[in-house]
Amino acid sequence: MLTSHEDPIHPNLHKVVLADGTIKIMEGYYGNFFVITLLLIDGTAILLFFLSVSPKIKAKNLSSIMICLGINLIISPAAFLIGGIADYAGVAANYGAYFAGESTTAPPLVSRALYFLGGFLFIQGIPLLILLAAFWKFARAKKIKQV
What we know:
Radius of gyration: 23 Å
Structural class: mainly alpha
Helix content: 55-70%
Strand content: 5-15%
Order of helices and strands: EEEHHHH
Largest sheet: 3 strands, antiparallel
Strand order of the largest sheet: 1-2-3
Number of helices: 4
Number of domains: 2
Low-confidence stretches: none
């Protein structure tokens, strides 16, 4: 007897119960979508690095902002990955026994977005602070020139 159940929390994962009663988790395949997305993100970041040394950007004192944006773009896939892992780990910790059938009590209602944001900001926090400092420096330099 082979039955398949969709997981309501992760629709890409299917819980398959085999004839001997063991449970297998089957995951969907996304293939080249992620590879192409990573190449586009990295290509954009490299383009920002090269554009930051152009005379027009240097004349407007935007080089540091362009470099910080490039760093943020390069780090963002890793931050999304860690955020997704934190989200999955948080859900597995709260819902794992319930979906495996080992517990009859419903898990507490927790925010999955907070798990994701915690993991995302853990990785992306320092580059975002550096980018904010670059924006602050740019705005301050522009104010001083106006006075």
